[in-house]
UniProtKB/TrEMBL annotation:
It is found in: Membrane. Pfam families: PQ-loop. Belongs to the laat-1 family. It comes from Massarina eburnea CBS 473.64. GO terms for cellular component: lytic vacuole membrane. Keywords: Membrane, Transmembrane, Transmembrane helix. Residues 137-151 have a biased composition (Basic residues). This is Vacuolar membrane PQ loop repeat protein-like protein. Residues 109-157 are annotated as: Disordered.
Length: 310
């Protein structure tokens, strides 16, 4: 370990190498915590109706091909270990969604006795006795209902405040992830665990197997196509209820810092072509994440539109 530390500090660390390492570490921290917000959101809601299973399935296929391509290309062990972690995390989230979908489907199929009881009650028994014999009581009740409906159709300051607080908490969470990632890189650099990768490798050493490249491009296509079912579902339901905003914010942060880490490391042709599939997969999904952010801003959880419709 002392020899590695001495080797790491033998040459001065350039700004590009440092930024590449910091961005890569932040990306790693983002991916580690990525699925946790959605798992918590599903648990709190007791439902997984908000998230598209097609989105998770295609994403899972992308992680599998990413793992196979990384192992075939002989990438560093940390990349392979992270790809394995992705696959297990995907399985946990998919299993949770299937569990809630099956559980809620069974509940909805149970026969309800409430409607039968109401059908057996006498017609006179269903009328509100509080309104019997009081002139104008029905008009007062109707006007009170209309006032409540008009009030519910107006934007609530409490709802706007809670939405603003949610954005603030999510932003603070992102800052915390960035701090953890940067601190992790600094510790790894000081202890010699992280060493800058040389940018001038031999041609034979930089060759990527054709099969690994194909798997890498397949993974990029899956990542690009995975969010499309979710975007369509949000647009169809005109709601983002059940989705964790922090989940997509961490995805955006992870993809952006991953691409920045690669580009800050080197822009040489061989290195760029080797990492092109992963660049396409990470940077391309940023556009789709922004689209989902716009849907969050436009639709929210669907409460406003339902209030207006009422």
């Amino acid at each position: 370990m002392q020899n590695m530390t001495a080797l790491a500090h033998a040459a001065p660390l350039t700004a590009h190498e440092a930024l590449s390492g910091v961005f890569g570490s932040i990306s790693l921290a983002s991916w580690i915590f990525l699925l946790v917000p959605q798992l918590i959101e599903n648990y709190k809601q007791g439902s997984a109706e908000g998230i598209s299973l097609a989105f998770l399935a295609v994403w899972f296929i992308g992680d599998i091909t990413n793992l196979a391509g990384a192992a075939w290309a002989g990438l560093v062990p940390t990349v392979i270990a992270l790809a394995v972690y992705f696959c297990f995390a995907d399985l946990i989230l998919i299993s949770q969604c299937i569990y809630y979908n099956v559980k809620n489907a069974r509940k909805s199929r149970k026969p309800s006795t409430r409607s039968e009881d109401n059908a057996e009650q006498p017609l006179l028994g269903r009328r509100d006795s509080s309104n019997m014999g009081l002139p104008g009581s029905h008009r007062r009740r109707s006007s009170a209902l209309s006032r409540r409906r008009r009030a519910s159709s107006l934007p609530s300051l409490t709802e706007e405040g809670s939405a603003r607080n949610e954005w603030v908490k999510n932003t603070l969470s992102l800052i915390g992830v960035c701090v953890v990632g940067a601190a992790g890189w600094a510790i790894a650099w000081k202890t010699g665990v992280w060493i800058p990768t040389p940018t001038t490798d031999d041609a034979a050493e930089g060759e990527t197997p054709l099969g690994a490249s194909i798997l890498g491009y397949a993974s990029a296509i899956c990542y690009l196509g995975a969010r499309i079912p979710q975007i369509i579902k949000n647009q169809k339901d005109r709601s983002c209820e059940g989705l964790s905003l922090l989940f997509f914010m961490l995805s955006l942060l992870g993809n952006a810092t991953y691409g920045a880490g690669i580009l800050f490391h080197s822009v040489e042709r061989e290195y760029f072509l080797t990492n092109l599939p992963w660049l396409i997969g990470s940077l391309g999904t940023i556009v789709e994440d922004v689209t989902i952010f716009i849907q969050f801003r436009t639709f929210g959880n669907g409460e406003k539109s339902s209030a207006v419709d009422a």
